[in-house]
Each structure stands twice: as structure tokens, then as C-alpha cells.
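Predict the assembly for these two chains.
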Amino acid sequence: MLLIACPYCGNRPETEFRCGGQAHIARPADPGALSDAQWAEYLFIRDNPRGIHAERWNHVHGCGRWFNARRDTVSDRFLATYKMGETPQSQESNSILSTSTQAEARA
Amino acid sequence: MAQPFRLSRGGRIDRSRPVRFTFNGRTVEGFHGDSVASALLANGIHLVGRSFKYHRPRGILSHGPDEPSALLSVDRGPGRIDPNNRASVVEARDGLKTLSQNHWPSLEHDIGAVNDLLSPVFVAGFYYKTFMWPRKFWDKVYEPFIRAAAGLGKAPSVPDPDRYANRHAHCDVLVVGAGPAGLSAALAAARTGKRVILADEGPEPGGALLHDVTAEIDGRPAAEWLSATLAELDSRETVILLPRTTAFGYYNHNHVALAERITDHLPNPGTAPRERLWQVRAEQVVLAGGSHERPLVFADNDRPGILLAESVRVFINRYGVAPGRRIVFATSGASAYAAALDAKAAGLHVTLVDLRTESECGPELARLKATGAEVLTGHTVIGAKGTKRVTGLIVAPVDRAGRCGARRLLPCDCVGMSGGWTPAVHLFSQSRGKLAYDETIDAFRPGTSVQAERSAGASRGTYDLAGCLQEGFAAGAAAARSEERRNFTASPTLTGFRPVRAMPTDVDPGKVRAFVDFQNDVTAKDITLAVREGFHSIEHVKRYTTTGMATDQGKTSNMNALGIVAGQLDKTLPGVGTTTFRPPYTPVTFGALVGPARHALFDPIRTTPIHEWAEEHGALFENVALWRRAWYFPKSGEDLHEAVARECEAVRKGVGIFDASTLGKIEVVGPDAAEFMNRIYINPWLKLDVGRCRYGLMLKEDGYILDDGVVARIAPDCFHVTTTTGGAPRVLAHMEDYLQTEWPDLRVFLTSTTEQWAVIALQGPKAREVIAPLVDGIDLSPEAFPHMAMRQGTICGVPTRLFRVSFTGELGFEINVPSDHARAVWEAVWKAGQAHGITPYGTETMHVLRAEKGYIIIGQETDGTVTPDDVGLSGMIAKAKKDFVGKRSLARPDVVASGRKQLVGLVTDDPKVVLDEGAQIVDDPGQPIPMRMLGHVTSSYWSPNCGRSIAMALVADGRARQGRSLHVTTPEGFARVTVVDPVFFDPKGERIHA
């Protein structure tokens, strides 16, 4: 069971959380202006990287807040968790930021 | 019985406390401290079961958790029968009943043993090769046959009467295994003051020190060091010492699951739980789980009386039991000499056969020879004699090329074999650590760690006592972030072995039955056959032959199997790789995993404030999500249909009262509340007047209906949202997601008020008359309080949000009152309604009444692939809104394409036929199979008010089929139906405005 650091509550077991999939995919400001292909890309297409992945998590059985996390999908290690709208704080995660993921490239 | 094989002295058993249990009905006597295995051996009982596939006689192979053969059913009293317990780990105690398994009619005479004679047929992949054709034999012949033959032991047939506990724990250092390495680690960690949990699967901590009676540590007997160490650990409040506790699973982020067995060893368990599941979250973990001895692979190596060499030593030293009087040790390494020396010291006749030549041996050879025991170096084991008990071992000299010399028969009643050692890397591997092959010990050992753990001692491939102690101490100190290190001196340990896969033999190896996996009856020739047939990946060989797939997960067999495959493919061991270790390390009871989550504690049950009233008035209940809802209120003698028919008519003709408290409720509050509602729902909200209601529909971003419900505007910045009963958490989560992550700029608060508001629905033409005398501060006249309005006032003096809404098509009110007052208000309304014939109704009647009106139910008419237009509700979409959640998807090509399934009504030709919900619909029942299915029935009822059956359905291009005939499947064949508008009653909707 993962141990996840909610930015509001601290370390809590995985069972208190719900994963909301890939992070940093902003809802388009004007969906009506998008082609079907662009809308489908936003709606359905997600990264499935082997390695660092930015994810949305919700502390659903705790404070109820959504936050973002960077997790290594191979080791399940969390490199950082951070509030919505923030960028990761830790030294370690900054080095990760420099190797931008597909998600970052798209966001 | 006199325990003829009990040694006159020695062992850690308490000879002053005899215990009696039964084995297959026969009384067996042992002593406190015995395992069932040691007590059986003390009484000369070696034959304890029949093997899985060939029903071969099997005995006790090992003294520990790796035991593959001696599996017993253990009966601890009524309802307390567990199959497949390893005799080696079940503690002997008074009153226990044990039974052997997998034989008929008896252990001694087993008909199934004919399988052994047919063994040439039951080769690797037998099932795959045999049960292929003909196809039609599968259901009637093959599957029942396989099911009858499959499985070991009998599953219990009654509910488990025991209680199981669950505990979460945190510690700085978790140490797994209380042998020399684990104890030393715990000591080092504990001395730093850190919180330590030390778990060991045995009843007594000590590991190998419990049977190594000659070892010394730091100049004093090992037993003294052991008791001093335990005393120190025991004296520290920061240390939790858990005996009889198996760490069986190593999960993410140092989450380790332990199964503690609390009462099985007690004759009178009292009220204590049987087992406790510990979920430990450890800062650091030290793995000191020891190692497993490998059997030697030779013909008939599975005969009762053939044990692992170290196990022979354990039975002699720890339990004071001689597994035989005349013991032959067969080995390819040094450790068996320690067993032989101890056996000799216990006065038993000892011969040792070593595959290694004299020059390969160490000091062990001279030590054993000095006792006068015969030692045959450079000898192989050709096979064993005896069937239900070994009677002799056939040995022969062998050269390095594998050529065998003249055979010699060594008569014996017990064999102790040793093919070397394998570190128990199971938990390390479960932690996702990478194994590294070490040629010097011919085994995989922990390589790169992934989690915060370290291995020490034999589980890391360190077999000498001083090394184990030193490594354990260093690991414990490092885990506790201490720099302290300690040197230990200890008497030298006999280590080292020559790796051997199958013993050289002078006969065709393809003809002998040399077992590799004892529990699944896999022989060396099965594995070589699998490789010859093209299974080269160890994962494939494992599944094809089932080696290592039994409940022991191949603890004794994996390395031998791997070695045979590698030899066959002429590859190195790491070239073949190893299979994956998965939890649990040893079998865990379902009870321990489930814990207290049974019966009423399995799932929470939600009830409304009206629940007891409904019970008192004879309601039957149905489960809706976690709620118990009143289903219908039968009067005496009524069945469901009669009760529902009466309730339905009562609502349409008079007045019915219904508990709608389970509706989800969310208060949406804030300056931007209306804007938020506008973005979440398809409907327009900005211009909804305070005091008015609207039926709202919300979509997921993919354009499909998520939920619906009536929403009232309480104030310009406050909406009272209702959701479906089951959808409440989902809707709140959906709203929160968008509010927090997409529109954090909106000033809105969402609060679940489901439990705060109880809802009393009063429906029917007389509803207004019933509540009129009870309501204050609200003008109930139709002009002042029209349909889809909400007023605030009081009812019976209780503040209310009174909704004039209807899910029945009748004049109706939903009286929202604070839950604490709900029962009082309900009873007041009930009393006031008596003069009007008020009738309580349940969810079944609610369903029928809404279906008569064609109102949809989320999850019944919708299934996550249904758009507003599909159910005829596209008119609710606010055309002027540029965007809302799901809007863009409503323009997707698939959503605007023709041929989508649309909601329609169906009436059967025969008005008495009530269709099945879920029944498929076709155009032409005469078409060839497979037929083209147009859709399915979503709702179907007998409608008392229409005097006929009614149904709703999703049908491809359904609205264009109005008036046409279709055919619906029924158990009796096809029923012809006509497609109609889905409003069956009061199509003009006049009654609702009364």
C-alpha cells in the first residue's frame, strides 16, 4: 500500500486516496473551437510512461482536496506531492522537472 | 502410546507436560513444545499423507514452513476444520484432531494410488494434451472429472466461528525473523531507543539457535546468549516481540503484513481472537528470514522417512526425537555433517554419503570420521528402497563425469538429505528488490534494494553464525541510523556445498521418479520433458509442469528445478532467471485477511430517520447503495404485486406517503454558485428565480448522462441540489473535481447535506389537504405555490424547505425537514392523513408510478453511454450556453450519427405479458442467428392504473419506429410489442398542476 503525502494532511495510506489520472491537462478554454480530433485528444488520450508521471490525486477519505504528485511508475516512489497550481518544491523533483515529460510538453 | 522414538534426554520440550491429540482417530502422545510432526515422529509415524497427483505415500520432509508433503486437516472443534496445515508448524496440544488427506478409503490403502502406476500417462502437460477433444466432452466429462480430482484437502462447510483481529502499527525498524541475525539486528536497533517490532513465525524466538546445541557465542553457550538477548529485548518498552507471527507480504512503501496466530496452540482459547493481521508501516525493515535446505533429486526420494538433513538435526536436538534409529545422511555439502555428528551424539547409527570427493571436503570429514561413523565420499544416491517407509538407500561411487561404480545397499529407517541451501529471498523479492546470482553459494541473493530494507544472515547468503550475528547487528544499527558496529565470536559453522541438480545415476534418468516438487508431484523427467517440448522460459516451465506452483511456492524445489532447466539448456542459472515471488510467503487464513469485517461490519448500513417507523409498519426493505429503503408495505396476505397494485392506486386516487430521505443533497453556496451550476449542468441557472425548482441533468465530459435531480434556488447565492440515492458521492466528487482543479477562481462551497435533511414525499390528489393544517408561513394555494416551486416555512413548528415537486405525476410535495425532527413530522402527517386514507408506499411503487409517466431513472434507463437526446431530454439543454461539462462531446460524430438507441415505450400485444427488464429486442424474429439486436428493455412493470403491462426500452432509431411492431425475447419465446411514446398515464400532465 502506497504511503502518500497529502500536501494538506501529511502521510496517509493509499486507501484514503483516489487517483485521478494524468495531471496538468487543462480543460480547453473554448471546447467549441476544437476539432473532433483535438477534443478526442483532450478527452481520451493519456500518457502511460515507464518512469516519472505527473498524476492528480484526491484525498477523498481525508480532507477531500485534490493535489498533484510526481510518481515513478516503475518503483512507485513519490518524488513530490504539491498543491493544485503549485510546482514541485523538492530539490529532487526539480531535477526531474528539467527532464520534461510528455505531459509537460503538452500542458 | 509410549513414544518409542523419543530420546531419553534433550530437546526444548517440557517432559512434565504431556499432550494428547489424535491422528486419523488414533491417540498420539507428545510433550508440550512438540510440533504435530515431532510428536508423530516420536511415535514412529512417518506415513502422514498421499501426494497430490500420484497419491504416493508421503511423510514429513522438513521441520519448518517449507514443508511440502505433510499436509493435515486440523480439527479444533465444531466448525473449526482447516485443511492443508503443515504438520511441521502446527503445535501439538491437547484435544487437537488431525487427519491425513488425499486418499480413499484410507491412508494405508488408497485406491488413487493407481495413478502412480499410470504415471507414464500423467506426464508434464497431461491436462493440456489430454482434455482437448472432442469439444463437447469438456462440460460433461472433463471438467467434472478434473474438478473432482483437483485440490488438496476439504474446504470447511460451515461459517468460521472464530474471531479475527486487525491492527495497524508503525515502527522505526521492523525485523523479520528472530534467528541469530534477526535477534542481533533487533538488539542493535532497540539500543538506540527506536521503536522496534520483531516478528518470528515460530512459537519460540531463536531460529537455528534452538537446535544448534553445541554452538558458542562470545565464549558462552548460544542458549545463554539467546536468553540474555531475549531478556534485554523484553525489558525495553519500545520493542514489540511477536512470536507465531509470519511476515507474509511486503508491499509498497514499507507496508508489511504480518499474520499473528494467537490461540491455535491453546487448548482453551477463551475469548481471544484466533489470529491478528498486523499491517505494519515501517521506516526501515531488516529481513532475516533464514534459508531453506534443498532436497537431493534421486529415484524415490519422496519415501516417508526421507527428511532434510537439517530437519533430522532439529527433530533430534530441539524436540528430542529420533526420526530413525539407523540414519543415512546423503549430502553434497558440509552442513549435513553437523546433523550427522548430533545424531551420532544422540546414540543413533549414522552413515554419511557425500557426493563430494575427499579433497572437496573441509574439516567436517575428519570430525565425523573421528566418531567412528562410516563416511562414503564420492558417492551418489541411485535410489531409495521401501514404499510406505524408507528401508534402504542404494548408493554407488561416482566420478566427476557421472560414471557410477558398483551399487551398495545401505539399510536404514531414515535418510537425511542435503543438496545445499537457498536464502529465503521471498520478502526481498516481494519488495521489488533485484536478485543477484552468487556463484559461490549457487543461489540468488538480495541485490539492489528498491525499498528501505536490508537483508542479513542466511537470507542474504551468510551461513556462518558469527557472520549472521555481525551482519544482523550492523543491519539493525544502520536501520536505526546508528554507527555502532559489533564483532561477535562464535564457534565455526560447517558451510559450503557442491551444487547438484539431479544425482548421477546408472539407470536411464527418463525412467526414474526423482521428485523435484514434492507438493505438486513434479519429477526431474517432467521438467526435462517440458524443456524438450520447447518450454525454455522458466515462467513457462513452471506453468506447464506446475513446479513451484503449490501452496509451498517451491521453497524446497525452485533451485533444483531451475538448475535442471539451466542444465538442459546449457545455460547459467542467471541466464534462465527466476520466477516471481508473490505474497503470501506461507498460506494465510481468509479469516485473518477479512478480520472483523464480517456480517454487520462487512459494509456500513445506512438507514433513514423513518426506518424504524417503516419496520413497525411491516415494510420489506431493499438495498440501494448502502441504504436500506422501504420496498413495499404488504398488508397481511399480500404479495409484492398485490401490495404494489394497492399502493399505486392509493397514490393516484388519494394520497401516499414515501420516505425519500436517501436522495443525495448538496448545498451549493457562494457568490459564483449560479455560474458554477451553469457550467456543471446542461440546464440554464442564471435566471432561475429564488423559490423555483428545476429538473437538472448533468453529464460527464464525454457527453453521457451522469446524474439527475431537482434543484431549488434558496437564495441568489444558494442552491439546494438533489441527486439520485446512489449517485450522491459521485456527484459531489465530480463537482469538487471541477471546482478545485478547473475553476479554482469560482467562489463556491459544496456541502453534502444528505444526512441533514430528511425528505417526506406526499403524493396524490389529496396531498395538499393533508398538510394544509400542519404548515405555517406558506400559502399552499396552486396560484401562490405552483408545481416546481420551493417555499420555506414551518411544518408542525419545524423549519422546512417545502418542495412542490412530483416523481409520480400527481400533485405532490417533498417535505424537507431536519433529520432529527423527521420522525415526529412524519407521524404528524400520517395522523393528519388518516381521514384521507393515507397509504405508505415503497420504492417498488415509486418505480411503477414514475414509469407510468415515462420518467427515467439513472442507471436503469441510462448506462453510461446514453446522451440527453437518447432519452428525449435534449430540450433541457440551454442553447445559449457556450459551454458546460459535456457540451462539446454532444457534437462528436458518434453522438450525432443516426442509429443511436433512443428511449421509447413498449406495449405488448398481450396486455398481461410483463417483459423482462434487460430482454433483447429484434425486428424480425425469423432472421438467422446471430440476430441483429436493436436494443433492450430498461424498465417493465404491471401498471395497475393503466390496467396493463408497460415497458420502457432503448431501441436503435426508436423514435422513428413509433407505432411499429418489434419482438422481445421472453423465456417462452418472442413477444410482439408496439413502439409507443414512453408516457403511459396522463399524457397531457394535467394532474401534476392540480
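The interface with chain B takes residues 1-3, 13-14, 18, 20, 26-27, 30-32, 34, 36, 39-40, 43, 56, 58, 60, 64-66, 75-76, 84-85 of chain A (CB under 8 Å). The radius of gyration of chain A is 15 Å.
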